[in-house]
Amino acid sequence: MSNVKLAIIFYSMSGTNYQLAKWAKEGAEAQGAEVKVLKVEELAPQSAIEENEAWKATVEATSDVPVATSDDIEWADALIFSTPTRFGNLPSQMKQFLDMQGALWATGKTVNKVVSGMSSAQNPHGGQEATILSLYTSMMHWGAIIAAPGYSDGSIFAAGGNPYGTTVTVDQDGNMTEDAEEAVKHQAKRTVSVAEGVKNI
Ligand SMILES: Cc1cc2nc3c(=O)[nH]c(=O)nc-3n(C[C@H](O)[C@H](O)[C@H](O)COP(=O)(O)O)c2cc1C
């Protein structure tokens, strides 16, 4: 049993990052962590969602998932963010969530959170690493401890070999083209293990 509390925070328009978040939950729970899966608040107008069947389906599929708050960040020892690429960057929904944590940051409550990132894009080189780096830049400002997977497990190679964090490519039909489940679970376990060490310093 671990004494680590992990918040997995995602944004997803067509379900990919929600799936990555659910795999991460399985991996972290297998490591004994207490886990919350949370979504960031949707900012897009309802009319835009209504025009897109996949988006509408994801909003419905995640309707029971709680929206992440500052209290969740404060609660957690470790954070895993899962986010699609938007023009090689974080979606505004995820950025807005990070930008709403100013009060937490100003009171030192983001320091020493152990953080890891996952991402997806439509193209194999569509900006997955850049998106994770954007996240990690903010995390450095938070004083968080970044637990990138590196090449710490063979499953990472099966998922495309991204040492920044697990990333996937999503085809036109919305399917992931990599076999990423084990890499995600490994990343989650590793994040929990690093957080255990940090917590017990
Ligand atoms: C506005 C917008 C910008 C996007 N920019 C990129 C991009 O720069 N590169 C890319 O490969 N895919 C891009 N995509 C595709 C998304 O990254 C892809 O649909 C997403 O990773 C799927 O994740 P999800 O199912 O969790 O929403 C973009 C999609 C949208 C809607």
From TrEMBL:
Its EC number is 1.6.5.2. It is an enzyme of class 1 (oxidoreductase). One of its GO terms (molecular function) is NAD(P)H dehydrogenase (quinone) activity. Residues 6-192 form the Flavodoxin-like domain. It comes from the Bacteria. The keyword Protein transport does not apply. SUPFAM superfamilies: Flavoproteins. Pfam families: FMN_red. Keywords: Oxidoreductase. Belongs to the WrbA family. This is NAD(P)H dehydrogenase (Quinone). It comes from Alkalibacillus salilacus.
